[in-house]
Amino acid sequence: MSADANHAKGLLITAFGGLVLTFDIPLIRLAGGDTWSILMVRSGCTFATVMAVWLVARMLRKPLPALVPGRAGLAVGALYAVSALLFMVAVFNTTTANLVFILALNPMIAALFSWVFLSERPRAVTLAAMAIMLGGVLLIIDEGISAGNWLGDLLALGTATCIAGAITISRRSGSDMGFTPLVAAAVPMVIAAFMTASNGYRIEAPWWIILNGTVLIPVSFFCLANGPKWIPGPEVAMFYLLETVLAPVWVWMIFAEVPSNQSLAGGVILIATLTVHSLWQMHAGRRRRAALTARHPV
Fold first, then answer.
1. Residue-wise pLDDT tens digits, 54-94
2. Please, are residues 45 and 212 in contact by the beta-carbon 8 Å criterion?
């Protein structure tokens, strides 16, 4: 398969995973439960689903990637496990808009990690975008401090950092990490089960979380975790922007939750910067591929 075809395949798979992920927070909110009960059921369903798929495929003798490919897989799994814990606590400690706006910093953190650990030096345009986006995030966190949501905002920042780290390691290893973030769900499941045993179980509408953990999370994370095989880490992280744009829309339609003006201003800065930078990145990529084709005609 040609480089262009691989790149297009990577873009399509990651875009689909990002779109599916936009329904995660609305389903968590619809379930109407406490943090640890929801995390236990969501992670447990995800883990059970991926293991069932794995076992059925093994019985049918289908070729499968390793569940956790080596030390790189362990590191990626650990980062996804921590991100799941931070994300779930953040959902209950800040607004949906603040959470997804801060998660939009993910591509810039991935670009920074690629620079530091993979020697993929970002261009001046990317560095400028990082600085602008940092200003947008600081604006949102400042609003969160005023509204008492600072803990949730910081947890959202930690979630974005963990996901960016997992994407960077996946990119460096070149291994198939499709199952790794899903198997990693066992860690938050065990921690949440321990907390639920101490604090009690409460989920008012568990079917939403079962749908989330059984279908949405396995599909979205399988697609997003496979993206770095075909496209650079910053491009994979770009598709988390879909959640930034659409999740607040779904929450507004269902729960009539309207973000504050300052949070919206920070979100607009993030989304506009990411959009302009992503368009520039794709245009630059097309020009480089066209130049290579001109130098090496078939």
1. 888 888 877 777 788 888 899 999 999 999 999 999 988 88
2. yes
Helix/strand/coil percentages in the chain, nearest 5: 80, 0, 20
pLDDT tens readout for residues 121-139: 777 877 787 788 778 777 7
Domain ranges of the chain: 3-295
Burial class (CB in 10 A: 0-12, 13-18, 19+), 81: buried
Question: Is the Cβ–Cβ distance between 107 and 239 less than 8 Å?
Answer: no
DSSP labels, 136-198: HHHHHHHHHHHHT-HHHHHHHHHHHHHHHHHHHHHHHH----SSHHHHTTHHHHHHHHHHHHH
Tally helices (H) and strands (E) across the chain.
Answer: 15, 0
